[in-house]
DNA sequence: CCTCCTTTATTGCAAATACAATTATAGCAT
DNA sequence: ATGCTATAATTGTATTTGCAATAAAGGAGG
């Protein structure tokens, strides 16, 4: 009955454990790598936007960004038109790291899907698109 | 490319945010309700077994169980044959709460799957079963 | 223009989290 | 038996997390 909902949670938690351990050597545990990936892929988001993008609490996201700024991966920049927001950009250090993060995500994705044919992957993608949380499209 | 892996993570994080908010009123935030559900459904697991079952760090799981024991939801019992392990059982308080937790999980599951036909749900279940994390079946 | 409501960023603080280390027991191989 | 290795529970500790509250700015309506 709850197989779908529970399995989705289990997959996420197992992957989180793995990624945290994997990136600890780089000092990038606790989902830090997710932030870098998102900012490199979509530079210029403001803080609340990024938090929504990664589905993480805003204060947590805020502090994580602050940490990544201190570590030299990201920079914050005031928006000229809207004084309320600060936009986030990757530094060169982040750009240089990105391929490694991308390769990790790729490897994890391939591992996850290794037992599915191309058609099955497309089918799974299609079905996941139809899922919703709290009445909202994900 | 990463749509599957990212969407699975997004769904889990959104549901976790919702469940934490929902159960806060009962003093059961932070996945506490997951522990109660698992122990009611499968009483007698020992601590490490439960931790693996919910895919959560063992020390975190240990402290959470301790908290739930203090709150009167769970009891710990030494195993007579194996002195190394302590088995976990639900109290009556947990049993009485279970229907409510079950109803919540049911409602969330139905919301998640509302746009899928029965055939699509079966298909999704089948595909999720074929996924693996770190080379291991989930 | 002024007031009210919303959005964004930020800080305080208490609780949760997880790595590392420790202790105790079990099980296996000599 | 004895030692070695693995597993389970537990604690110490530093970091992370997230709710609540605050401040500043934007936006909508009269």
TrEMBL record, chains A, B:
Short name of any one Pfam family annotated for the protein: HTH_27
Source organism (scientific name): Loigolactobacillus binensis
SUPFAM superfamilies found in the cross-reference section: Winged helix' DNA-binding domain
Presence of the UniProt keyword Cell membrane in the record: no
PROSITE patterns: HTH_MARR_2
Protein name: MarR family winged helix-turn-helix transcriptional regulator
Superkingdom per UniProt: Bacteria
InterPro entries linked to this entry: HTH_MarR-typ, WH-like_DNA-bd_sf, WH_DNA-bd_sf
Keywords: DNA-binding, Transcription, Transcription regulation
UniProt keyword annotation of Amino-acid biosynthesis present: no
HTH marR-type domain residues: 1-133
């Amino acid at each position: 009955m709850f197989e779908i909902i529970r399995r989705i949670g289990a997959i996420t938690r197992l992957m989180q454990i793995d990624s945290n351990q994997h990136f600890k050597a780089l000092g990038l545990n606790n989902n830090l790598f997710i932030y870098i990936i998102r900012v490199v892929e979509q530079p210029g988001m403001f803080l609340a936007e990024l938090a929504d993008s990664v589905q993480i609490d805003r204060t947590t996201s805020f502090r994580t960004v602050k940490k990544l700024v201190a570590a030299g991966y990201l920079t914050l920049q005031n928006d000229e038109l809207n004084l309320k927001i600060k936009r986030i950009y990757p530094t060169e250090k982040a750009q240089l790291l990105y391929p490694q993060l991308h390769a990790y995500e790729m490897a994890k994705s391939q591992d996850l899907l290794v037992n599915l044919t191309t058609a099955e992957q497309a089918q799974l993608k299609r079905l996941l698109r139809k899922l919703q949380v709290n009445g909202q499209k994900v």
